[in-house]
Amino acid sequence: MAPKLPPQHSLQHSSSAVAGGQSQEGQSHYPHAAQPKGLMRWLLTTNHKEIGSLYLIFSLTMFFVGGIFALVVRAELFQPGLQLVEPEFFNQMTTMHGLIMVFAAVMPAFTGLANWMIPLQIGAPDMALPRLNNFSFWLLPVAFTLLLSTLFMPGGGPNFGWTFYAPLSTTYAPASTTFFILALHMAGISSILGAINIIATILNMRAPGMRMMDMPLFVWTWLITAFLLIAVMPVLAGVITMMLMDINFGTSFFDAAGGGDPVLFQHLFWFFGHPEVYIMILPAFGIVSAIIPTFARKPLFGYASMVYATGAIALLSFLVWAHHMFIVGLPLTAELFFMYSTMLIAVPTGVKVFNWVTTLFRGSISFEPPMLFALAFVVLFTIGGFSGLMLAIAPADFQYHDTYFVVAHFHYVLVPGAIFAIMAGVYYWLPKWTGHYPNERLAQCHFWCSIIGVNLTFFPMHFAGLAGMPRRIPDYALQFADFNLLSSIGAFFFGASQLLFVLVVVLCVRGGQKAPAKAWEGAVDLEWSVPSPAPLHTFETPPVFHRAQSHD
Amino acid sequence: MAADGSQQAGVRRTVIRSVAALLGMFAFAFALVPLYDVFCQVTGLNGKVDTTAKAIIHEEVDQSRFITVQFITRGSAGLPWQMSVETRQMRVHPGQTAEVDFTFTNNSHQESWGRAVPSVSPSSATTHLRKVSCFCFQEQQLQGDERLTIPLVFQLAKDLPEEISTITLVYTLYPVQRIALNPLNNNNAAGDKI
Amino acid sequence: MRLPWQWLLTITSVASLSQAHASSWNMPVGVTDTSRNIFGLHMTIFWVCVVIGVIVFGVMFYSLFRYRHSKGAKAARFHEHTSVEVLWTAIPILILVGMAVPATATLKNMYDASEADLDIMITGQQWRWRYEYLGEDIAYTSNLSTTREQIRGESERDEHYLLDVDEPLVLPINRKVRFLMTSDDVIHSWWVPELAVKQDTIPGFINENWVQINEPGIYRGQCAELCGVNHGFMPIVVHAMEEAEFETWLEERKEAAEQEAMGVDREWAIEELMARGEEVYQSICSSCHQGEGQGAPPAFPALAGNEQLINELDWHLDRVINGVSGAAMPAFRNTLNPVEIAAVVTYTRNAWGNETGDTVQPATVAERIAQ
């Protein structure tokens, strides 16, 4: 095969092409010039670890930006009445909070972890397409600078919710919507390129001897996530392109006046949107499946069933989209179909939870910070799963739909779900990245503050929703006041305690207790065979994979 | 290097397949638009009605039951038309062909184009409603101050589900922006400044 | 005759009836059979989740406590057990089937399309609801009646803050009422928790729903789908009456409509028009164009001192009657009657320094609408 390839293709592949060559920092990537310094080094890097770090730093920054938007919302909702912001700006804040958290915080964080850890976990020297990797990262800051700049445009930024239902987002949208679409296109291209890169890496660059069923679950869940991304991001691109055409070129995909249908928008959006929800949670399953066995010092229970359950969840995610649309007036058969298929998702998800709990059973358990976050994930994500099951019951959903009950549900699966898993992953792999353990006491403090904050913020929302508070309202009736007061206090507490996280990470980068190659006693995967901190280039000669390290 | 070479080929293959899948999904998103229309028409989802004329099917009229058919007409912003119907509701037997007159009046002195967008409720009745002739199949043009009466001819299928007793036909008028060849005309047509 | 699950639902609903009537923290039981069924489903699935949660978290916390590394626990090495794995796949499926059966029955019942005693067309508009009693010649809009001062905290908030309207939807109890729902602009969602009706109103399309209320009372809800700036300010109030009382209301309402219709033919004085116009303006127009006509550009232009408005009466009338396509300004041709349009146009032409001195007579408006 090799001679058929035109020579320039080897350039795309610089790090593996020079495998075994220079193991010193840098030189290999830019044979024509010296290693760029300062800003240029980061702008031009093609190293998976550096790009991984860039993704993580970007995502953390955006987590705070999105968090501040959320705090504006919570501050306005602190008590009844309009005090701080006008309803128009309030709507922009809820919209931007959702968009930033989904597309700029959670998704890039997982991509960052994938960049850092997938090559290390499968024994590859780098990602398959390092230059593409650089490009897909640098699209993000451009995309989100553009998105944030819409807030300063005349007419304001997007104000139609992160689900941007037509015609509110087309015929009745602010002038900046075209820029919103452009930003989302760029973020989408970035995700797609990242996904292609991940698939190409996992399928082709595993260490000799590592079969698919030997891969750590983080790699497995990311592989499935990447397939989901390739399947649904183009659909999102299609939807927003249709919006763009409706707004600017006089088509009427979503406009009844021209023979279109606003409900079509929702079908297309949720065909993307529901798999998107799993894109944000599957890699979290992978992280937790790595951490729990490590600190229970016991192999993961049911490795194979974990893989199948992840696959099942991914497949089912294409068949459930209309459960977001139970009240748009679907025919009875459609309601029933989507109710049953949604309830079915509880089965593979349940299998995962049972597997984690059984892994703990008769283990030898210690409670380091990554484990604390992983355990909190299991409990709180399951609570989010329970409310998800309640929402699946279509007749009951007629009452829950678009209330704070839904807000509570998806924040339970996304904050102590996805975000706690990301934090667990960061604490777990920080010793590998920096060579130092994170400060245990500060990390513990961060954990307990987070867990109090998250529950104080989101638990009362269940009650507010059941009692009848719709979501996305800037002001509310007096009977919801107590719940909102608690939520707002919780939100500020949670927000403030995330500063501790930054502190722990910064301190850990600068110093701390030295970590050995195998930083955690019970850890088994390949990444723990390289030194801590991991040198810039690892596995330039592929490691020999021993089945003993594997999961079955 | 041999291993590297085959690895590169593998990466290349994966990338090509991924990009193909990607383009396929992008096209699929657009293909969903007509597919959705077909799906709606087959299942009656959303009360979306077929926009082409159907032939009358001569079948036995079910004299044993009456169906109440309601007609609702709605105007909309930006089109100075009035739409009215000769009767607000009528009772028909399944299988029977019925005709009802709708009148369109242009209240302005300018010529304009409009479209009556149909919707049917309950949506399960949609597939059992055959419109033989309807003003909603195409855009309508009215000269300034013109009044136009157009009949709706329809037939309810004999196999209309037992539990349906009332069918509501709603027509919402929407303006149609005709794209004029002369940009100046176009400006006049869209001269709505807020 | 009741199936076992129906008994289960009944028991759970009755058991929770006492606290749920207060419904400050749980879903209201509501006042329709459907709402009671839904409440039963809600409580059943809730308790199912609680039981599963107690078992799963129980095992988890037991393990965390019992097998602590610090207490010298030695880890076992098992990592597979096929029969256990099959079992915990099968049991949830059975539980789900058990839940799906009553849910399906409730859902089927909600899709019942049998003949109704009363048909009401509900139209969502940015940001109010319009109710039309089909076949009765009664139609009116229902607007938020909470004052701006209360929202801004300049006066004390009353009990039904943000949940009060000028004209509630009046319905009879014990009769099947069919709702036809649509929208004039964006998607709204008509929701009254105690009736367990939540349905999107979609521009250009019609949705159907029905309700049969068992108890008279006043039931409050809100728009449940983000519909723009004032999404949080378009409540729904349903006033359910005994049937006889409802008939009386219906008659009064029809008479009032006739009176109003007769008002079209007579000449109105400017003071009368101004007074009526101010009422209409404050309930309909002020949510966008603001209380003093200052507007909120660019979406909502100012009316006070608006040159075009002052100079072109014809243009002004056209905007109110026919609306502006593709912008927030709706056509009021069908929403307001000629008296109201004449009054509000007169008012806006003579308030806040717009001293045109013009009066517009209802007859002129009626002629313009009908021609």
From TrEMBL, chain A:
Residues 1-32 are annotated as: Disordered. The chain crosses the membrane at residues 54-75, 95-116, 137-157, 177-205, 217-245, 277-296, 308-332, 338-361, 373-394, 406-430, 442-465, 485-509. Keywords: Cell membrane, Copper, Electron transport, Heme, Iron, Membrane, Metal-binding, Respiratory chain, Translocase, Transmembrane, Transmembrane helix, Transport. SUPFAM superfamilies: Cytochrome c oxidase subunit I-like. GO terms for molecular function: cytochrome-c oxidase activity; heme binding; metal ion binding. Pathway: Energy metabolism; oxidative phosphorylation. Coiled coil: none annotated. It is an enzyme of class 7 (translocase). It comes from the Bacteria. It catalyses: 4 Fe(II)-[cytochrome c] + O2 + 8 H(+)(in) = 4 Fe(III)-[cytochrome c] + 2 H2O + 4 H(+)(out). It is found in: Cell membrane; Membrane. Its EC number is 7.1.1.9. PANTHER family: CYTOCHROME C OXIDASE SUBUNIT 1. This is Cytochrome c oxidase subunit 1.
Automatic annotation (TrEMBL), chain B:
The keyword Protein biosynthesis does not apply. Its main location: membrane. It is found in: Cell inner membrane. The chain crosses the membrane at residues 15-36. SUPFAM superfamilies: Ctag/Cox11 (SSF110111). Pfam families: CtaG_Cox11. GO terms for molecular function: copper ion binding. Keywords: Copper, Membrane, Signal-anchor, Transmembrane, Transmembrane helix. It comes from the Bacteria. It is a single-pass type II membrane protein. The keyword Transmembrane applies. One of its GO terms (cellular component) is plasma membrane. Belongs to the COX11/CtaG family. Exerts its effect at some terminal stage of cytochrome c oxidase synthesis, probably by being involved in the insertion of the copper B into subunit I. NCBIfam families: PRK05089.1 (NF003465). This is Cytochrome c oxidase assembly protein CtaG.
TrEMBL record, chain C:
It catalyses: 4 Fe(II)-[cytochrome c] + O2 + 8 H(+)(in) = 4 Fe(III)-[cytochrome c] + 2 H2O + 4 H(+)(out). Its EC number is 7.1.1.9. Pfam families: COX2, COX2_TM, Cytochrome_CBB3. Gene3D superfamilies: 1.10.287.90, Cupredoxins - blue copper proteins, Cytochrome c-like domain. Coiled coil: none annotated. SUPFAM superfamilies: Cupredoxins, Cytochrome c, Cytochrome c oxidase subunit II-like, transmembrane region. Keywords: Copper, Electron transport, Heme, Iron, Membrane, Metal-binding, Respiratory chain, Signal, Translocase, Transmembrane, Transmembrane helix, Transport. GO terms for molecular function: copper ion binding; cytochrome-c oxidase activity; heme binding; oxidoreductase activity. It is a multi-pass membrane protein. Its cofactor is Cu cation. Binds a copper A center. Residues 115-252 form the Cytochrome oxidase subunit II copper A binding domain. Residues 19-114 form the Cytochrome oxidase subunit II transmembrane region profile domain. Residues 1-22 form the signal peptide. GO terms for biological process: ATP synthesis coupled electron transport. The keyword Transferase does not apply. The chain crosses the membrane at residues 38-65, 86-105. NCBIfam families: CoxB (TIGR02866). Subunits I and II form the functional core of the enzyme complex. Electrons originating in cytochrome c are transferred via heme a and Cu(A) to the binuclear center formed by heme a3 and Cu(B). Belongs to the cytochrome c oxidase subunit 2 family. This is Cytochrome c oxidase subunit 2. It comes from Vreelandella aquamarina.
